[in-house]
Amino acid sequence: MTSRFVPYATTPGRLLGQLVSDIVVVVWSFIWLMVGMAVHSAVATIAEVGRQVEQGANGVAENLDAAGDRTGGVPLLGDALRGPLRAASEAALDIAGAGHNLDDTASWLAWVLALAVASPPILAVAMPWVFLRIRFFRRKWTAITLAATPSGQQLLALRALANRPLAKLVSVDSDPVAAWRNQDVAAIQGLAALELRAAGIARTAISAR
């Protein structure tokens, strides 16, 4: 993971933290995805009831129509029986239409509720994670680019003088400011390495970019 194109640190501690955060985000998203799927399945059972009602009512309507057709051959009572059977068939078709509407509405509602339940908690964690990873990637890209040139190393060293703890600065040179002013190459490289490490970049990543 030494490439500047890889959005991961090259220092062990920072890299471990990033990998742990990745795992947490993946597990969290998976859990809420399962919750969303459970909500979808629960609401989808209503749609299944609607489909069953539609299929059953259509079957009843077909049987009533067939019965009405067969009564046409019954002497005297044929016409009298056909009317109620046709009316019952139309009522069954109305029930089938209601079942179809229930199927469509419940199917649509199942996805809406699943997304409404799962999306907010996933986005609440994933969006900050994406933001921090992009910010780290930009910082890594800039730091490695600066470290590739002497003037860039001087700028990194200057940032280290402004941002790093005094104990770390004097570990590089007893008078780090004077060393930077005198353009002491070893001190500048040491200070630049402090800033790189604070950005999560091991110094070996510069030569391996």
Features:
disordered C terminus, mainly alpha, 209 residues
Give a quick precis of the structure:
This protein has 209 residues and is mainly alpha-helical.
What does this 3D model show about the protein?
This protein is mostly helical and 209 residues long. Mean pLDDT is 82; it is low at 205-209. The protein is built from seven helices and no strands. The radius of gyration is 36 Å and the shape is rod-shaped. Helix 1 runs antiparallel to helix 2, helix 2 crosses helix 3 (150-163) and helix 3 (150-163) crosses helix 6. The protein has helices at 12-70, 78-147, 150-163, 166-172, 176-181, 185-198, 204-207. It has two domains: 1-135; 149-202, no CATH class. The longest helix is centred in the middle third of the chain and has 70 residues, at 78-147.
Give the fraction of residues assigned to helices: over 70%
Q: Over the alpha carbons, how many angstroms does the gyration radius reach?
A: 36 Å
Instruction: Provide the number of structural domains.
Output: 2
Task: Let me know the average pLDDT.
Answer: 82
Measured by DSSP, the beta-strand proportion falls in under 5%
Number of helices: 7
Unreliable runs, pLDDT <50, ≥5 residues?
A: 205-209
State the secondary-structure class.
mainly alpha
**Gap between N and C termini:** 9 Å
What would the principal axes of the Cα set say about the shape?
A: rod-shaped
Say how many strands there are.
Answer: 0
Order of helices and strands: HHHHHHH
Report on the biggest sheet.
Answer: none
